[in-house]
Amino acid sequence: MQKGIRLNDGHVTYLGLLAKKDGTRRGSLSKKSSDNTKWHTKWFALLQNMLFYFESESSSRPSGLYLLEGCVCDRSPSPKPSLSAKECLEKQYYFTVSFNHENQKALELRTEDVKDCDEWVAAISHASYRNLANEHETLMQKYLHLLQIVETEKTVAKQLRQQIEDGEIEIERLKSEIAAKLKDNEKIQSSPTTAPSDDDSEIKKIKKVQSFLRGWMCRRKWKTIIQDYIRSPHAESMRKRNQVVFSMLEAEAEYVQQLHILVNNFLRPLRMAASSKKPPITHDDVSSIFLNSETIMFLHQIFYQGLKARIASWPTLVLADLFDILLPMLNIYQEFVRNHQYSLQILAHCKQNRDFDKLLKQYEAKPDCEERTLETFLTYPMFQIPRYILTLHELLAHTPHEHVERNSLDYAKSKLEELSRIMHDEVSETENIRKNLAIERMIVEGCEILLDTSQTFVRQGSLIQVPMSEKGKITRGRLGSLSLKKEGEKQCFLFSKHLIICTRGSGGKLHLTKNGVVSLIDCTLIEEPEGTDDESKSDKSGQDMEHLDFKIVVEPKDSQSFTIILVASSRQEKSAWTSDISQCIDNIRCNGLMMNAFEENSKVTVPQMIKSDASLYCDDVDIRFSKMMNSCKVLQIRYASVERLLERLTDLRFLSIDFLNTFLHSYRVFTSADVVLDKLITIYKKPISAIPARSLELFFASSQNNKLLYGEPPKSPRASRKFSSPPPLAITKTSSPNRRRKLSLNIPIITGGKALDLAALSCSSNGYASMYSTMSPFSKTTLDINKLYVSSPITSKIPDEGEGKTDKADEVSLSKQDISVREESDNDQIQSDEAEAEVSPTKSPTTPKNVKCKNSSEFSLFSYNNGMVMSSCRELDNNRSALSAASAFAIATAGANEGTPTKEKYRRMSLASTGFPTDQRNGDKEFVIRRAATNRVLNVLRHWVSKHSQDFETNTELKMKVISFLEEVMHDPELLTQERKAAANIIRTLTQEDPGDNQICLEEVLQMAEGGKSEPYENQSALEIAEQLTLLDHLVFKVIPYEEFFGQGWMKNDKNEKTPYIMKTTKHFNDISNLIATEILRSEDVTVRVAVIEKWVAVADICRCLHNYNAVLEITSSLNRSSIFRLKKTWLKVSKQTKTVIDKLQKLVSSEGRFKNLREALKNCDPPCVPYLGMYLTDLAFIEEGTPNYTEDNLVNFSKMRMISHIIREIRQFQQTAYKIDYQPKAALYLLDGSSVMDEEGLYEASLRIEPKVPN
């Protein structure tokens, strides 16, 4: 029998305890028994290459030991379990330890965690002494190799030290030799010199000449090197880079000053005011208005000091670390940006408090503010990030790719662009609030309605208001009088709810006229007023103003009605004004009709059909909305696909005037005119496609048991039976109270693009007693929404037929004294109405005032009282008649309310009644959609043609396509008369020239200049030059098409092809500036030069009076040229008075604060005017930089388009108003003659010739 191996049991126990305490791996494992039947859980501990196991974790003595040297540890698959143990074994993980001995059985272990299993396998696999020995051997070899390297390096270092010591000895030796040589030289120089010989003197002269030649050649070489570098692209880039940095320093100093004024002049005083006993504002409101303003000021003060420190170390400019300071603080800006809209809304709300408004005006009157308002200072931080982006763009453009700051500046630019996109959206959404507040500040008397943040600014301009005579009449001949043009000129501001009419006072301030605040909901617009025969014969002097006037009839609910007559300067301007006013009236009236029946306030609500359409409020993959509402009380679009924008344009439920104007300005960026026109043609031919699929189910929803879309069905079965046949409406003088009842007519009508909820209409019960009595088609009736006449709310049983006949007898006996009649002027319509009407009394009674509606819940589009149907929307040519619901739809959407209440049309009045079959009601709704689609197409085309005639003048194919389509529309037999008339008006606008603008065009002026000879400057007067310069500047400015303002084409390489007219404007500016400088430098006599300067300054001052700020900048920039500015002797003789005028003009057109003084002057002046185009191009560059036209999802950035559209709107305001200046060839040819004008280099050479540089 073989004896077992004896071990030192005590030492093994010690090692087992050491493994249990400090082992490499410890834990519970299941060990398979020797008979391969059972698993026992043991506590295992691994120490080096020994694996101990214990009965439990608390055991003090190991139960066994496995020596792992030379073993192999691997994962093993799980054994196939029985059905009962399958679930349990799924959580077991097995591994085996195999020994090299053949008869040695492998150790089988398992764990419950796969991670634990893998860690055990890895630990056991590395537990080998042989592996440690091999690693130790490898390390020892590396150690010996490193020792050899160290010894070698020590030897080399010793040799180098020896060489250094030898070198020091050699240096000391050479120093001693040099010292000895110097001593010898001193001795030689101190000894008396002998008289030089002639040969020595000659040699010295030769050496001196050689020295001069060497110096001259060196200087020439260095000069060539320096000049080559100065003219090199690198030097040019560095110069421009330095210029950008210096400009950035000036802009940052200005911005810090603005923030300082915001905090010290507004924030801190308002905090103190909020702590007073009677605070005009609360601390919460102060915090909301000025959120993070003080922190932003501190941040930029630090940034500014750092920038100054960088400038102090010039020419070494390192800026990237400065932006590293700024970038982590952008979250402060983000909070300010997100709060900006709320801040301006709180400010507008607080200004309704008179005490706060008075206090705020005191703060704004401080000299530091320079007449700038608080909202202006609150907007400055919104423009700072785009300014940084522009600066970084310029820096990167002039920074070489291998520059150390390139990557840092790129990173800073990308981070700032992310914030800039958010800022552009916020600025776009709050621009309307700031515009309203700015106009309100200009009005001396104040205008509280402009503090309503939901009001949208549409347009402004100068119109002539014609005074009314005592009898309310006007002689058309007065329209052309010069005195009327001067006295009656008014500044008009159109908003989505109101029209503001003001006069311009001193200092550019505005004063409200009498009845100057006109609520559009009370208005009826008459675009073609008709004069009487006597008036037309009385005076012919107004013929030049023919068809330029339009009338607004205002019928306030709490005062007497009045009429406003306004005259435009051209047909195009009149068309733009009337189309915008009519669209605003349609929007506000239809919104007003959408009020809920029991809503107490006057806020406009959205109809159920729009409320239930989630696509108008919820973001989707192809559309994103902002927080602001448009004029139709629907969320504004922020981003959208082209398809969704076209869908919004043709959505028959509503049409926002601000969306329409923005779309027509910017559609060329993301689509083409042909696509837009094809969409309109498709809507006309397939009207059902104009309603989004999401709303079709709502529109055609019908149920016998549930509520209809537009209200509840009549609850009385008898009422339903009573209306099973269409009830004609009868005219009665009065109605007995005991025979009146209330009736709900549910009429689905879309007015002005709106779906209306017409409920609880009051109707006289005797209205359907007379079967064939209708209102006369010759009568005209207007209805103000706030003045609807309704019958008494007293209800009673429905009268029988006999009672109806009795009432009919009363109708015939109406007296003429109780009847008011206005005859129509459209004979064609009279004949068609006569043919359709079966019985038509020629008079319509007025409704007694004692039955006026007093509750907003009774407002409706139609009021049925005494058998009359009265329309609340005006028609294009002021024709008004009794209407059915179907005809009324056309009135509301296109402004037309002609139509005859035939039986078919009366049938449509009760199409929502449950007494009719579903297919009949749906057929009527389809008729409504057809009329809506036709009127929407004509409405959009009218705005397009009247406001954007350039689109059709430059694209003949588009023009002919529109004319062909409109002619096809006019031949539609189902077309209403007013729709046909609207189509004819559009064709006439396209084909006729506007006679209102008889001004000479730029091409004619240039043709005259080619063949003529100009007179010298001395023969021109300052007034003639100023007037002709103003005329030329405006002619160049007015022909710039609005599409050139998109895309920054003027900054691209192919700018002459993309923006030819903007480049012509720039060239004209530079040519005039060069002409002025040439004229000054032409004379050698200083007195003549002084006279020329003073004359041009006088020209600039006259141009300022003519509101030609472009010419002011042309002249002042010419005087500030280096070639003119350096003429010190000349400027010394310029009079003090002239210098004062120059300073005033330079301050006016200074670029400081984004041209703040020039903007203020433009705001306070009336057109005609020529602004400086570069100011608007800078604004557009701010918007374009860092804000792409499309998002990453390929959606159109419509917020950006809206901002650009608002800038274009201001530009076009100045483009459309022409100067009444006669063309004078003498002065004009002089200004256009460039034959003797010098370029920049020639000007500087002439300046040096007149006054050479003084040597230092």
UniProtKB/TrEMBL annotation:
The lineage of its organism: Eukaryota, Metazoa, Chordata, Craniata, Vertebrata. Residues 22-129, 467-586 form the PH domain. Residues 798-824 have a biased composition (Basic and acidic residues). GO terms for cellular component: plasma membrane. Keywords: Coiled coil, Guanine-nucleotide releasing factor, Repeat. GO terms for biological process: Ras protein signal transduction. It comes from Cyprinus carpio. SUPFAM superfamilies: DBL homology domain (DH-domain) (SSF48065), PH domain-like (SSF50729), Ras GEF (SSF48366). The gene is LOC109045861. Pfam families: PH, RasGEF, RasGEF_N, RhoGEF. The keyword Hydrolase does not apply. Residues 825-837 have a biased composition (Acidic residues). Residues 841-851 have a biased composition (Polar residues). Residues 633-748 form the N-terminal Ras-GEF domain. CDD domains: PH_RasGRF1_2, RasGEF, REM, RhoGEF. It comes from the Eukaryota. Residues 150-191 form a coiled coil. Residues 710-737, 794-851 are annotated as: Disordered. Residues 240-426 form the DH domain. This is Ras-specific guanine nucleotide-releasing factor 1-like. Residues 1021-1253 form the Ras-GEF domain. Transmembrane segments: none annotated. GO terms for molecular function: guanyl-nucleotide exchange factor activity. The keyword ATP-binding does not apply.
